[in-house]
Design a protein that fits this description.
mainly alpha, 3 helices, flat
């Protein structure tokens, strides 16, 4: 795999799966896709921002929960 800084930065894949592939395969919503992305990549681009990345994941998860609750009759 090439190390293209736009398409395949090193922090995008730590194992055999890339977040984007999982998100597509599981057909996740935008919000849940971002939860997966931020969790998978937490701290990999910048270790000093691990907590920030996880807080972003939590925000997207909270948004998805709020949206789903709004759809319940």
């Amino acid at each position: 795999m090439s190390k293209d800084p736009v398409l395949r930065p090193a922090h995008y894949r730590q194992g055999k799966h890339e977040a984007l592939s999982v998100i597509r395969e599981w057909k996740l919503s935008f919000a849940l896709g971002n939860v997966v992305k931020y969790i998978c990549r937490a701290g990999l681009k910048d270790p000093t921002k691990t907590i920030e990345d996880l807080e972003k994941a939590r925000e997207y998860l909270d948004d998805e929960i709020k949206y789903l609750k709004s759809k319940v009759p």
